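Need a sequence for this fold. Nothing fancy.
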C-alpha cells in the first residue's frame, strides 16, 4: 500500500518544505514526516499538489513520459475568443518548441475561495475563465500558452492531475488516500477506499 496526500496549495507558497528567504512553504499547512511533492506548482499558482513517501509513486506521477493529463482553471485578461481557443486546441509553438494539442474551453467562474490579494478590477475590468488540459509539464507552460494567444493569465488553479481531483479542498487543506498497489510498481488508479477527512495545520 502507498499513501498519497492531496493538498490545495495556496497562492504565494513554495512547493517545498523549507526556504531560506522566509517565504511560505508546505510546512505551513501539512505536517507529515517523510513526504515529498510529486512535481511542483509555481509560487504564484494555486491548486492540486500530490505528495507521497513512496518514491516510485512520485516518479510515476511526475515523470513526463507518463503524460499524466493536468487540468487548470485559468482567469485571463480579456474575453478569450474562438480563434485563441482553437489555437490552443491545435497546438502552438513556444520558444522551446511546439506544444501538444490541448483541451480548451470557456467556463463560468469556478466556485473558489477569494485570492489574497484579489485581482484588481480597476486594472483588469474584463476577464474570462478558461479550462485547459495539457499532458506536458514545461516551465510556466500554461501562462506562456495563454500569453502567446493574446490573453495573459491573471490567476491559475490546478484542478486535477490524472484521476485525482482538487474537489472541495480549500486553500491549505489536504486529504489522504491509500493506494492498494505494490510499492515497487504503483499504478495511478485510486483505491475504492473512501478518503480520510480533510485536515489542516494552522499556519
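Here you go.
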Amino acid at each position: 500500500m502507498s499513501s498519497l496526500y492531496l493538498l490545495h496549495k495556496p497562492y504565494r507558497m513554495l512547493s517545498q518544505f523549507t526556504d531560506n528567504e522566509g517565504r511560505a512553504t508546505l510546512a505551513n499547512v501539512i505536517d507529515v514526516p517523510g513526504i515529498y511533492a510529486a512535481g511542483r506548482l509555481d509560487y504564484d499558482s494555486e491548486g492540486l499538489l500530490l505528495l507521497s513517501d513512496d518514491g516510485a509513486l512520485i516518479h510515476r506521477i511526475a515523470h513526463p513520459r507518463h503524460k499524466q493529463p493536468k487540468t487548470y482553471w485559468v482567469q485571463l485578461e480579456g474575453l478569450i475568443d474562438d480563434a485563441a481557443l482553437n489555437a490552443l486546441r491545435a497546438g502552438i509553438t513556444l520558444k522551446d518548441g511546439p506544444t501538444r494539442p490541448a483541451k480548451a474551453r470557456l467556463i463560468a467562474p469556478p466556485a473558489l475561495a477569494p485570492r489574497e490579494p484579489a485581482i484588481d478590477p480597476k486594472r483588469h475590468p474584463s476577464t474570462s475563465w478558461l479550462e485547459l488540459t495539457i499532458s506536458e509539464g514545461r516551465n510556466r507552460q500554461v501562462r506562456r500558452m495563454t500569453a502567446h494567444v493574446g490573453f495573459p493569465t491573471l490567476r491559475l488553479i490546478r484542478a486535477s492531475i490524472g484521476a485525482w481531483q482538487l474537489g472541495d479542498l480549500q486553500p491549505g487543506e489536504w486529504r489522504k488516500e491509500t493506494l492498494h498497489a505494490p510499492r515497487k510498481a504503483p499504478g495511478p488508479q485510486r483505491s475504492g477506499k473512501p478518503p480520510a477527512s480533510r485536515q489542516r495545520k494552522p499556519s
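For context: The first strand starts at residue 2 and ends at 9.
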